[in-house]
Amino acid sequence: MQAPLVRGRCGRVNQGAEPQEETKGLPGSWKLGILALCLGIFLLADGPIWENPFDIDRQVYLSYLAIPPLVLLASVLRRTWSWRWLFLDTLELTCFKFGLTYGIAIALWAFAGAPKPAMSEPSENKASPARATERPPVPTPIANHLKAKLNVNLTGLDGEQAFVFIQSGLDHLHFPVPSGAVSLKLGTRGMVPRMAIAQTWQALEWSSQTSELHTAFGKRRDGRVVFNMPVMPEGRGAKQRLKHPLGLVHVQCSAHKHDRGDAESGHLLVLHHPFAKVVRGDTQVEFGEVPEGELVVAAWTLKDGLRRRSVRHKRNSPLSLRLSFAPSSERADPKQNK
Fold it and tell me: Strands across the sheet with 203-208, in order?
């Protein structure tokens, strides 16, 4: 039987040469299918993206990571596998996906506006749900004989920083807004100071420790975003006023990903009253002129979560209580505060 004749580049006929099929990439319909799957991951992988458009990093990463294995699987199914086309198809789909997802994100950010602060508090810090208005509420007049000192003894901290504050019991009162601003900086290792306290309507002054642009990204333990604002390089600070008692807010720089766990974050406690302090190690904290009432006094550390005690604070009667972070002490809510 005569061997097949194959015409060469110069028109010559090569006898005995086998015709070779050129390996091609995936057809357009397969690429559209892969692109649709990646788009679905971007939109729905971590919940509908339109419900929280300011926290989409995870969806973006997952949608990119899905492209290479999907291209590989499609190539194997079509028996068109080659390293060259795996690279080219992956690169092409990555570029198309970037354009689509970036356009969708820009549109969502434009229509969503600034992230709205949540009215409710995180479970470990149910401070006063003071109503937010366009102006600070008028301070409630409180007679001096209705106030007394409150001393809190903290033990078992082992040198660790802690928030000490009145968690509840002052919901019906309003307090003067401090005139001074809280100075906060973002740098290569997150927020400085690492733990800070702000009162509602008090000015927050954000600045950058470096020559880079940062973003102050604040969210609660339940994952809800409460603010996301740019922080300019040195010498150009940004001011902010939080009108809601947000409780415990964890702050990261979303531009540089200082989110290697809570240890690389900052922690901001936002309350509607002034009875809160940041301390380090075992100590005694004194709050002066605390109004009488049924109070819940709490302390929080990154390592051990929340400790709290309910007390009855009586007028003209100084009160002392103890909060222990020793291993034998029981947590207030271990499921929510670990």
Answer: 190-192, 182-187, 203-208, 238-241
Enter the CATH code of domain 144-337: 2.60.40.420
CA distance 253 to 215: 5
Distance of CA 81 to the CA centre of its chain: 41
Closest listed residue to residue 234, CA positions, set 268, 172, 185: 185
What token pair was written down for 56? 């989409």
Residue pointed to by tokens 């010559």: 12
Q: How far apart are CA 76 and CA 90, in angstroms?
A: 14
Residue 64 identity: Y
More confident: 198 or 53 = 198
DSSP summary character for residue 47: B
Q: Which amino acid is at 55?
A: D
Map residue 92 onto helix, strand or coil.
Answer: helix
| Domain residue spans of the chain | 24-112, 144-337
Backbone angles phi, psi at 101, to 5 degrees: -70, -35
Q: Find the mean pLDDT for residues 267-275.
A: 94
Helix 67-78 to helix 83-112 angle (10° resolution) is: 140
- Give this prediction's pTM: 0.59
Give the span between the Cα atoms of 105 and 100, in whole angstroms.
9
Sign of the torsion formed by the C-alpha atoms of 310, 286, 182 and 218: negative
End-to-end CA distance of the chain: 80
